[in-house]
Amino acid sequence: MKIIKDEIFTISNGLSLVRLLLSVPLYFLFIYFDNPGISDIIIFLIIFASFTDILDGYIARKLNQITEFGKIIDPLADKIAMTAVLIGFIYNNLLPIYYVLIIILRDVLILLGGIFITKKTGKVLPSNMVGKITVLIIGFVILFRLLGFKQNDLIFDILFYLSIIMIIISFIVYLLRGIKVVKGNQ
Fold this sequence. Notes:
Layout: H1 5-8, H2 11-29, H3 38-62, H4 68-91, H5 97-121, H6 129-146, H7 154-183
Helix pairs in contact: 2-3, 2-4, 4-5, 5-7, 6-7
């Protein structure tokens, strides 16, 4: 895999970098979560980060800016931003620790698998629709929890357990896809 300098400085990669940098204030805002208005700022930043994620993918396709660097920075920014938020959730007892650990474990395993596949084949596996749907559902769990929904609220419980199912399914999909690529079937 060869990353060309011109491929780094694109609009879509810039948006991914913004999302990556948003991880820092998101992480620190959770320290002051109980202060008035902080949860509103966190919600705004999460929605803004989600918007940059949608926009960077759209721009990359529309302007033909899909790059090897973008295939790395985009999911990395997603995973780091999600981890910053999830650590804040643990710090404030907003979600069960097992749930946060399942998400982080999935992301770490996918990241390590991606590194292995890239070293073995020279290819960077782009994200897939199952992974994107999984992250979207996790995002709704996070958003609904920030809006005050809790365990035993029907809509929250549906999203919560659906996200766990999707986390498992998406990991299996990534694993099977990775095995195919390493074996040279894709």
